[in-house]
Design goal:
The chain is of the alpha+beta class and about 110 residues long. The chain has helices at about 30-35, 80-90, and strands spanning about 5-10, 15-25, 50-55, 60, 70-75. Helix content is about 20%, strand content about 25%. It is elongated and about 60 Å long. The termini are far apart.
């Protein structure tokens, strides 16, 4: 008999965030939990088959072994390359403070 695990599935946009709790059999893959959660009913833009998944802020492989209490995070594709944005700001002479706000150049 397979043990059950409580796994959360989380997704966020700038406008809305949602965490769904699922009870699943041990040994299930992260992507299968996302499919079972039905989160795409709330966020139809999610490409469940191709999105990157993580657990508590760390990207995980497809065969990651979940443990009870894990939170699967669905990552949105980047709109812009962060390295390129830093290069552009450096070229403009703008310094950044922690958290992404611009420092006053004076």
């Amino acid at each position: 008999m397979n043990a059950k695990q409580r796994i959360e599935v989380a997704y966020a946009t700038p406008q809305k965030q949602l965490i769904l709790e699922c009870e699943v059999d041990a040994g299930i893959t992260p992507r299968d939990v996302v499919r079972l959660s039905g989160i795409e009913r709330h966020f139809p833009e999610i490409d469940v088959e191709n999105c990157d998944l993580g657990v508590f802020g760390k990207l995980v492989p497809a065969d990651y072994e979940l443990i009870d209490g894990d939170r699967i995070e669905i990552y949105r594709p980047l709109i812009a390359d962060p390295k390129e944005i830093r290069r552009q700001r450096a070229a403009q002479g703008l310094a950044m403070k922690k958290g992404g706000g611009e420092l006053n150049p004076e």
